[in-house]
Amino acid sequence: MPESDIISWTDGAWTHEPAAVATSADHLDVTAVESSDAWRHTAYGFVHDTEHALLAPLTVGEAMDVSFRAPWDGQFDQAGIFVQIDEEHWIKAGVEYADGHLGLGAVVTDIRSDWSVGYVDEWHGSEITVRVSRWQDAVIVRARADDGEWRLVRVAPFDGDAAASAGPFLAAPTRAGLVVRFTRWTRSAADAELH
């Protein structure tokens, strides 16, 4: 991976304020508000626009990495990275705990949301890193646990002419008290290859 620059926790702006934030030199502990989520229309019929995402600019040709840990014990607890043009055009990618399994996936929203997910139960207890690379016409999502191999998660269409921001995100649709520890937030050159 290319050399990366650390992004300060103070360089971002929240889409929606979390219940609590505790900052130290090497991590950011964030507590989600109960019922926070991000989704638009598809299958469920609702619009949820209450996620907690700490966003900084992401331009074409850049990548952003977010690393984090969480207990993964509440239904639909989720964390990862959020990439946003506006409230109807965004991507959330990372992990979500649902029905007793930890799932790695992405929700890509272009007015309506879609969702792709696969189990990564072996990632329980790991530091998880999600990486997005912004190309002219796409966002490439990769993820890994600890220092493991990167997995390609998604290749999603994304408007290269639009201003966008990205950064750490979390949500807790069904409970209060989810605390995610974000351990790294960096920017680098976008991945040049898909494979």
UniProtKB/TrEMBL annotation:
InterPro entries: ConA-like_dom_sf, DUF1349. It holds the Pfam family DUF1349. Gene3D superfamilies: 2.60.120.200. This is DUF1349 domain-containing protein.
